[in-house]
Structure formats: structure tokens, C-alpha cells
Amino acid sequence: MTAPTPPVRLAVLASGAGSNLQAIIDHLDALGAARAAEVVLVASNRADAGALARARARRIAATVIADPADGRALARLLDAHRVELIALAGYLKLVPHEVTERWSGRIVNIHPALLPGFGGPGMYGRRVHEAVIAAGQRESGATVHQVDDAYDRGAIVAQERVPVEPGDTPESLAARVLGAEHRLYPRTLQALALALATSN
Ligand code: GRF
After folding, report:
1. Is the Cβ atom of 112 under 6 angstroms away from ligand 1?
2. Is there a smaller number of Cβ atoms within 10 Å at the N or the C end of the chain?
3. Could you read off the pLDDT of 138-165 as tens digits, one per residue?
4. 111 is catalytic
């Protein structure tokens, strides 16, 4: 099936290795003409972020965000690329209100736990999985949620559950959850883009 309109213009904000970005790029590529979104910009608060290198390798605009707290500058960058949908993928900075307001309903994040539990300030990376294991949870997973002005608080869009296995370490659980992220995020973004394309 061919997507009905030009693909929705997607920006990915990342601070780290960019494995979620890569999963998104690869999934949309695999959809071919059926893709409802295309990554037109990758931006990072860190010049050495692996995500920027992955973008450059695919000839996608890759930009360093000089001041992540400067909402006007970030909005200008996004407007310069006519961005319609924003995906945070391991982006460790709060998004300024100017951007969360302008792109309200069209800015999402992936969190490596089953929100509303195990989220909020400081709950990222290894700490999330340590807390899940320490709490004796039998399940964890990945959550895609809307982004507002606080960490991990927006409406939940999609989740994928994974088991917590006996003897799991934060590292083994993180790897299992990351696999769920790589499945969930690209498909959720495709669905969001399809919904946007039909509502435009
Ligand atoms: C991962 O820890 C993931 O759980 C969370 O942020 C990190 C992103 O990793 N969403 P990557 O940069 O996408 O590889």
C-alpha cells in the first residue's frame, strides 16, 4: 500500500548511541512507499552522539543543539526543516515549553519501563532497570508517551511488555527492554504519522 500523502516530516532528538534512531530509519526504509514518515532531521545536545553519526551516514541532516534550554532556537531549527512530528530517543534534556506547546500532540518519547511506574526525573538508563528488579516486578517493558513539560508524564500512546527473568541483572533486563523499544517505537511512529497524514 502506498501512503496517501507525502511522508510526515519526522525529527529525532537523541543524546546517545542512536540505536532507537537506527531502528526507526531501518523500519521506515523497509516500508518503502508505504512509509508514512521520513526522518528529515536528527538533533543532539551532544556533538559526539552516535545518533548524529548514524544520521550523517544516511545523509540525514544532523545538528548539534547548542543550548537545549533555548526553546526559540530549537523551534527555529525544527521549522527550518518543516518538522511535523518529533520523536525523543534517549534524549536526556527537558524540551522547552515553546516546543512542547507548538508540537503538542505531535511530540513523543520512548521510556524503558511500563509508565506510569518507574519514570520521572533521574529515572533513565541503568537506574530504571535496577528499580524494576529491586521492586520485584515480574514484567517490564517500553512505553511511548506524549511529551509535555515534565519528564515521562504525558499520555501513554503504546506499550510493549517483556518478562523480568529470575537472575536478571540491570544489563540483561535493559537489553530485553531495548529490543522491545526497537520493535515498538518505529511501528508507533508509523501509526502516528498515518493518523497525522489523514488529519492534515
Ligand atoms: C536507551 O537506554 C533507551 O532505553 C532509552 O534511552 C536510551 C536510548 O538508547 N530510550 P539509543 O540512543 O536509542 O541507543
Report:
1. yes
2. N
3. 999 999 999 988 777 889 999 999 999 9
4. yes
